[in-house]
Design brief:
By secondary structure, the chain is an alpha/beta fold. It contains six helices and nine strands; from the N terminus they run ββαβαβαβαβαβββα. It has a five-stranded mixed beta sheet. Strands 1-2 form a two-stranded antiparallel sheet. The relative contact order is 0.24.
Length: 154
């Protein structure tokens, strides 16, 4: 599993469409957050985990904030519209369609029985200067406790 001091993997993700590549190793050179979720539109992700960051006033002081899921770019774009239609939070939603970024972090798990394939564990990484400053991973892969906005942002 990713640990404090690790660099952000040099893996392309997609934002809004498959051709719009985003590389977090280049985007996160200062402060930031990466929030990993098992599935866009799932109840925990949509009802509490990501809304907790969208509504938390401390999110704006966290630097660049990204939500990453093993989903396609179109799903992530649609999910963002349902949660933050006007992009007021400035949180960006990125697709890890192949799971390469998630695997590079060693944050994948076999979710085949529930979601059909390998997915991302639920986590939040605080990043500073392109390196992981703290790791907040859910011990059961999917709960919303250690990675919640309240725990991560204080």
């Amino acid at each position: 599993m990713v640990k404090v001091g690790d660099p952000i993997p040099n893996v392309d993700l997609a934002e809004d469409s498959p051709g719009n590549k985003v590389n977090l190793s280049k985007e996160l050179t200062g402060k930031g957050l990466i929030i990993g979720v098992p599935a866009a539109f799932s109840p925990s992700c949509s009802d509490s985990h990501i809304p907790g960051y969208i509504t938390n006033p401390k999110t704006k002081d966290a630097g660049n904030v990204f939500v990453v899921s093993v989903n396609d770019a179109f799903v992530m774009k649609a999910w963002k519209k349902t949660l933050d239609e006007k992009s007021e939070s400035k949180i960006r939603f990125l697709a890890d369609a192949s799971g390469a970024f998630t695997k590079a972090l060693d944050m994948s798990f076999d979710a085949s029985p529930l979601l059909g394939n390998e997915r991302s564990k639920r986590y939040a990484l605080v990043v500073d200067g392109g390196k992981v400053a703290s790791v907040h991973a859910e011990p059961d892969n999917t709960g919303v406790n250690e990675s919640s906005a309240q725990k991560v942002l204080g």
